Amino acid sequence: MTGIAKPRHGIIPWPPVIYVAAIALGIALGLLYPLPWIGDIFGDLMFGVGWVALFGVAMLWITAIRAMFKARTTLDPNAEPDHLVTSGPFGITRNPMYLANTLLLIGVSEPDR
């Protein structure tokens, strides 16, 4: 079926909301109970890993969205998809959008400078 995707009702919570809530909780906990800074080379390594993870997030989002547009299917995680996408990052992982969101959590959890 093509056209407007039919929403599936009764699915709570909407998956991206879980990631936003986790990031907000992490920020709140970081403000209330800050952890000590990890210095020296290990801290610099963790900071670099965070940026690499964020770069990976951007690349996964871009390639996954392009593959979904190319397959003419919905981007809404609660809607019924029109087509099964198996190309691009979907050929490697079942859901690259969730993988990207998990990498986002890892990337933003790296210590501040």
Automatic annotation (TrEMBL):
**Keyword check for Transmembrane:** yes
Keywords for the protein's UniProt record, in alphabetical order: Membrane, Transmembrane, Transmembrane helix
UniProt cross-references to InterPro entries, sorted A to Z: Phopholipid_MeTrfase
Compartment list: Endomembrane system
State if Transmembrane helix is listed as a keyword. yes
Q: Which residues cross the membrane?
A: 12-33, 45-65
| Pfam families linked to this entry | PEMT
Q: Name one GO cellular component term.
A: endomembrane system
Q: How does it sit in the membrane?
A: Multi-pass membrane protein
This chain belongs to the protein called Isoprenylcysteine carboxylmethyltransferase family protein
Species = Mesorhizobium hawassense
